[in-house]
Amino acid sequence: MDATALWQRYQDWLYYHSGLGLYLDISRMSFDDAFVTTMKPKFDQAFKDMTALEAGAIANPDEHRMVGHYWLRNPDIAPTPELKQEIVQTLQQIETFVKKVQSRDIKPPFAPQFTDIISIGIGGSALGPQFVSEALSPDIPPLAIHFIDNTDPAGIDRILNQIKDKLVSTLVITISKSGGTPEPRNGMIEVQKAFAAQKLDFAKQAIAITGVDSQLDKLAKSEGWITTFPMADWVGGRTSELSAVGLLPAALQGIDISVMLDGAKVMDEATRNTEIKHNPAALLALSWYFACNGRGEKDMVVLPYKDSLLLFSRYLQQLVMESLGKEKDLDGNTVYQGIAVYGNKGTTDQHAYVQQLREGVPNFFLTFIEVLQDREGISPEVETGVTSGDYLSGLFQGTRQALSENQRDSITVTIPQVNPRTVGALIALYERAVGFYGSLVNVNAYHQPGVEAGKKAAAAVLDLQKQVLEVLKQSSTPLSVTEIAKKAGKPEQIETIYKIVRHLAANGRGVVLEGNFGQPATLTTSYKGS
Q1: In the prediction, which pLDDT does 59 show?
Q2: SS3 of 331, please?
Q3: Contact indicator for 31, 290 with CB cutoff of 8 Å
Q4: Distance from first CA to last CA of the chain, Å, rounded?
Q5: 87 exposure class (CB count in 10 Å sphere: 0-12, 13-18, 19+)
Q6: Measured distance CA(412)–CA(367) in Å, rounded
Q7: Nearest to 87 by CA among 67, 101, 68, 100
Q8: Is the pLDDT of residue 237 over 80?
């Protein structure tokens, strides 16, 4: 296609939202008008499905739950007065709490004010808050935030060592809907022990964001934590950033959450338009369907050209892959759906993998995130008439052009600057696009049976570990892995048992392995005690 035709296609397919200053350019996706026509019946159904969800239809049949993250930014559309009141009250509770922390009406027992936050969560309870913190937190925030988002002991140590003497002025937020998820529970217990080691009262510096009457809610209230904030069962983890999960830590960092909510609300309104060309989320879903042939045949590479959006691709990984990666469709057919997402930032990653993107396996489509404003204030010139921001823009445009010339499809989302309003809009845009795409490919975007299967398997391994230890403690002689498996009544689990004893031995847990480590079957295992 020549330059004149490309320019015309750009104008034909450019979406612009004047209120947000947001552009969406899908002109470098190589679909034709016939493809759009064939997709219209699917989109007609997708628009109906989204309307039903917003009205309170059950979207997660596994847990008989509604899905209502869009009500969070517009309580007036919640399907019942009770739900509206719940949302409004939670926002008021967040506002009141943050003001009391800022005024020092709420403060730690042995320090004049809170200076730091430890946020303990996993998955959406960490990825959303981390993304927003990286994107929007002031350079010197009123409270500096640190995340424990894994059950990695060394990672937990690193956070606690970074805080060191500031634990006395640290507010701990534990985020878990059920209170039983192992990763946040483990992080909470380790932080409690760190508080105890410094003779600090954990409860006087702790709050919880959790389901009403959950294990964590009951624990927090019984131990006298500062307060708890509710997590509604109709908000999934990957869509929870604009609930208390993300809003509370954001507000404590000085981020204007009301503006972020407004940006999301405005975007939601734009994505209710039933004309594909005038609906940015529908345009994204259309482009994804075309690129992936409706079957996830290509990966989504996300390249934001702004350091503060570094974590956007990581945030989108969960939102897209957990929502769309499904074995079965809504009719029970085996379909193996999904879109793999990866990326980091431009221009850093141009030096990492753009070579392959341009000339290697064409198994992807790109999403560029462009930010028009380089910085607050005037940039100095790095050469005559050119600033660092000019280079950033030039490298983005050059990469887009070079990829297009080699028939690599791309989408470009452009925002005027990174601020609470545009970040809220981006969150809503991609939440809605995922919802539309799920309908287009006939999968449930709001449950995650694969994640639950992994949790059950992990629990089974830990149960097996208890059995293995009991076998070793009762044996007066060293045992081979085969003998342990036999005595435990789990001969089919021999490989898992080997990995259990190897891990225990490596961590000073009383288990001793002897023999040729390159030949696991020849090793002998004994228990010497801790």
Answers
A1: 83
A2: coil
A3: yes
A4: 72
A5: buried
A6: 6
A7: 68
A8: yes
- In this structure, the number of other CB atoms found within 10 A of the CB of residue 23 comes to 17
Buried b (16+ CB within 10 A) or exposed e, 42-67: bbeebbebbeebbebeebbeeeebbb
Rounded-to-integer distance, Cα 362 and Cα 407, Å: 9
Among 193, 278, 455, 473, the one annotated catalytic: 455
Spatial CB neighbours of 154, under 8 Å, sequence gap ≥ 6: none
pLDDT of 145 > 80? The answer is yes
The tokens describing 359, both together, are: 């000339």
Strands 206-210 and 227-230, by their bridges, are: parallel
pLDDT category, 530, cuts 50, 70, 90? low
Q: Could you tell me the maximum CA-CA distance found in the chain, to the nearest angstrom?
A: 84
Of the candidates 40, 64, 351, 456, the residue annotated as catalytic is 351
CA-to-CA separations, 146 to 226, 256, 306, in angstroms, rounded: 19, 19, 22
Measuring CA to CA, which residue among 401, 399, 370 is closest to residue 6? Answer: 401
Cβ contacts of 289 within 8 Å, gap of 6 or more: 39, 437, 440, 441
Position 62 scores a pLDDT of 67
Q: Based on C-alpha coordinates, what's the Rg of the chain? A: 26
455 is catalytic: yes
Catalytic residue among 322, 326, 345, 431: 322
Quote the CA–CA distance of 74 and 85 in Å, as a whole number: 12
Distant-in-sequence, close-in-space partners of 238: CB < 8 Å, separation ≥ 6: 123, 124, 127, 128, 318, 319, 322, 323
At CA 206, angle to CA 201 and CA 207, rounded to 5?
155
* Percent of the chain whose pLDDT exceeds 90: 92
pTM of the predicted model as reported, rounded to 2 decimal places: 0.94
- Would residue 104 be called left, alpha or beta, if left means φ above 0 and alpha means ψ between -120 and 50 degrees? left
pLDDT, tens digit, for every residue of 47-64? 999 999 999 998 866 667
When pLDDT is averaged across residues 360-377 and rounded to a whole number, the result is 96
Q: What are phi and psi of 383, to 5 degrees?
A: -155, 170
In this prediction, residues 147-172 reach a mean pLDDT of 96
Asked whether the predicted pLDDT for residue 468 surpasses 80, the reply is: yes
Tens digit of each residue's pLDDT (9 = 90 or more) over 301-337? 999 999 999 999 999 999 999 999 999 999 999 999 9
Query: How far is Cα 138 from Cα 418, in angstroms, rounded to an integer?
Result: 12
Please give the Cα distance from 223 to 227 (Å, whole number): 11
Looking at the DSSP bridge assignments, the partners of residue 228 are 208
* H or E element at residue 118: strand 116-120
